[in-house]
Amino acid sequence: xxxxxxxxxxxxxxxxxxxxxxxxxxxxxxxxxxxxxxxxxxxxxxxxxxxxxxxxxxxxxxxxxxxxxxxxxxxxxxxxxxxxxxxxxxxxxxxxxxxxxxxxxxxxxxxxxxxxxxxxxxxxxxxxxxxxxxxxxxxxxxxxxxxxxxxxxxxxxxxxxxxxxxxxxxxxxxxxxxxxxxxxxxxxxxxxxxxxxxxxxxxxxxxxxxxxxxxxxxxxxxxxxxxxxxxxxxxxxxxxxxxxxxxxxxxxx
Length: 253
Ligand SMILES: [Zn+2]
Description:
alpha+beta; CATH 2.40.50.140; de novo design (two linked rop proteins); five-stranded mixed barrel; binds zinc ion
């Protein structure tokens, strides 16, 4: 039977005792799966079917021919990321990353890179008390979008490909896909040199480095708002989890 590793992107109750999950799995990508009896007995799935947990599972194709639904017959916890429960902002960022994958990843197109990226971002958020959750949200978010074919261009003009000069402010156009140089028409958002450089740093360094780099609060707010606009334009949808995350992070100051 096909064993896979999975993360829960969303879950809804179904009938009296079942739950239906949107999962991101390493082998199958984004799929829907039903866990029969999951609401009646949590023992059956070893308590593994929790938000932000990484678990191993056996997935079978549903017998109903046209349905794309898989059946989750068991689940064994690999990592529960329990540290997330201690901090509202970290929980908010984790929720945002899962919603971003849910909205941006195409169904049934597995990417081990995307899966591993999500797993390591959740683990960092849960266990690394020294990192900045706001930095991590953008650093991991930029990579998730790139893996889903929606890369936000911050190092080069999205129209002509010219490298963005270091230490300068830049124009940004969310609809056109990122930074646009002045000869190509610029854009409605002006990113000052500090915010532009921070975006470049987060998109070109490992997530862990980005999560630990120093970004002042005003710059991070500006970056969050720019990133929010970008996601909204690209997905044609406002992500509630990102709005929530920005509210919590504003209150934490
Ligand atoms: Zn250009």
